[in-house]
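RETRY 2/3 - previous attempt timed out on the joint model. Re-submitting the same 730-residue input unchanged.
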Amino acid sequence: MNVRSQIAMVFHLDKCIGCHTCSLACKNIWTDRKGTEYMWWNNVETKPGTGYPTKWEDQEKFKGGWEKKNGHVRLKSTGKGRIVTNIFHNPHMPSMDDYYEPWTYDYQNLFNAPEGPDQPTAKPISMVTGEYIDIESGPNWDDDLGGSPVYGENDPNFAGLTDEQRLQLFSIEQLVFFYFPRICNHCTNPACVAACPSGALYKRGEDGIVLLDQKRCRAWRSCVAACPYKKVFFNWFTGKSEKCILCYPRLETGQAPACFHSCVGRIRYLGVLLYDADRVEETANLPQEQLIDGQRDMILDPGDPHVIANAKKNGIPDSVIKAAEESPVYQFIKVWKLALPPHAEFRTLPMLFYVPPMAPVMASRQDTGALNSVSDNLFHDIDDARVPMKFLANLFGAGQEGKVAYALRKQKAVRWYRRAVTVGDVDLETAERMLREADCTVSEAMAIYEITSLCTFEQRFVIPPMYREQAIEALKDPHEQKQSAGFGFLSGPRRGL
Amino acid sequence: MALSSNSLDIVLFAALPYLVLFTFLLVSIQRYRAQTFSFSSLSSQLLENKRHFWALVPFHYGILVVFAGHLVAFLIPRSIVLWNSQPLRLYVLEVTGLVFGILTLVGLTEMIARRFTNSKVRKVTSRLDALLYLLLLTQVVSGIALAVYYPWGSSWFATNLTPYLWSLFRFQPDLTYITGLPILAKLHILNAFVVIGLFPFTRLVHILVVPNPYLWRKPQVVRWYRPAPRNLT
Ligand code: SF4
Ligand code: SF4
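RETRY 2/3 succeeded.
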């Protein structure tokens, strides 16, 4: 057992209101520089939808992530042999058109336009060329267009649905959509790291944050193509790739990452997971149906004395082990099994998990009031909602509806239980039966209810001490470091010499 | 020092090479030390993805083969001469060189055309880039012209240029080998010196950092601040 600690995340999709506050918090801090205008390290997609960059989930096109070949996993887009052919021109790299061309407006014209019969306008200007452009797409271009034939219908997660089911989903009564906020998953088996010819990408040993060394990056672009989530971006100005850094400077000072901190729906949870690094390879190699369970097995119980002993042996500080015990994400992922990895079939073993949303499942029932119907099968609305279930399973269940159904049933049972307790319009007996059928106890239901509905800042974000000061001590005299270290580069990141 | 040429030749073929080589080494090393961030191929593939293929791929394959040819002739001239002793083998070598030279030219032309006609890519093209393209074009065109007008270059490179280049490396420049060369050949050599001198200031530095360790490193990279517990992924 080789115990590592990892900062892991859970997004509770049922709570996301699609306000994009997270995206803006991130943009304002990290990507408002030249060359990064088009990047959204955090973006919020409407599902069904094509996402950002357009159809990123379509790995036939982008060849992101890993695939199984002759019993072994290998990168879809590159590898030791293929690097030679890929390096001059990467055949699977998205172009700016797959994202959008960033623009601003010619605001001066509003002030300076000569007097005339019309109102002056502020024409859009490309932030790349500085010329006037016709805007063809933009960030969140398909926001809230879940049922649209252009966007919603082209969602790659509709694979495996019959035409009839698809059509149904786009009839106005059945139309569903929900929000899907995305950041880098800080994967345990990151495709971006494995693809980088220069070794510029790396996973931090102490906390598992995946970073890109700007000084080592040589613009070979392999990571951009290899990340199946399209969360490495290419800065067209500096000629370097960039990605989400999980706000590590904030984490190191005990603050939650900006997107987490600002989240209006309070959908975000962050904490430590302990996992067995010796099992990463074998887990990534499992058959698709076992991937989710395999990843859960790889995550270790921080209360287990054997795990604790091994964690200590690996130099994980007591305070980090304690944080792992209190970690809300551990509960969501492993104990309650509510949170699922996105597209586990990409085999990067993401460390950002999603609680699948109830809303689209409920909303797809039109004839009966969504939450009001009690039949012998208490979960009929979940079981009957076949169309979104398959869709959700493609997104969060590696294709298996069972995993998603389990999480949804438990969520519904908890709601009913709380409704029986607080509102009282459903009887407690039925609610408790539901809990039992959903594999949930009363105390578990209360815990889920609390962390979902009443959660405080401290409950959502259990940030361990990162001990960077000790890390510095190990390498350098702290007093010397204090006098010689500044922030960032001594020379600004610019293009070429 | 065997000097049997005029003073211009001395400046261009006995002094300049040392100047550019010195610049190349000094600036490359210092740039790597002080400006590591600036080492990048500055790819523009994100901005334009289609013509990029037809420009970059032929250019790179072409130039790599042509460069390898020059290198072989420089390192093992005798084998080349021996190889060329049979006409058929000589033809094969010459035609291969010419084909890859033309491939380079095709790619380079498209690279230049793409750079200056695509508005996004033009935006990330500096004056230095433009100068570099001009020099590269001169180099490739003069190389192809040499191959066409002064055939059997593979042989006379080995017998004339190689000894001259080696004499440079022995710090005893011997110009007797090259004073008699046609002006086109001299242009090709001189332009090469200029490219070498300019090299460390341009995006060409990406050649110095081609990622060979990728071939033997483990797929996953982990960096530790405290000593790594165990040497594993
Ligand atoms: S999600 Fe993040 S860690 Fe995972 S492959 Fe993509 S960039 Fe790398
Ligand atoms: S800030 Fe929170 S609620 Fe708003 S879109 Fe982002 S994740 Fe959803």
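The mean pLDDT of chain B is 90. Closing ticket.
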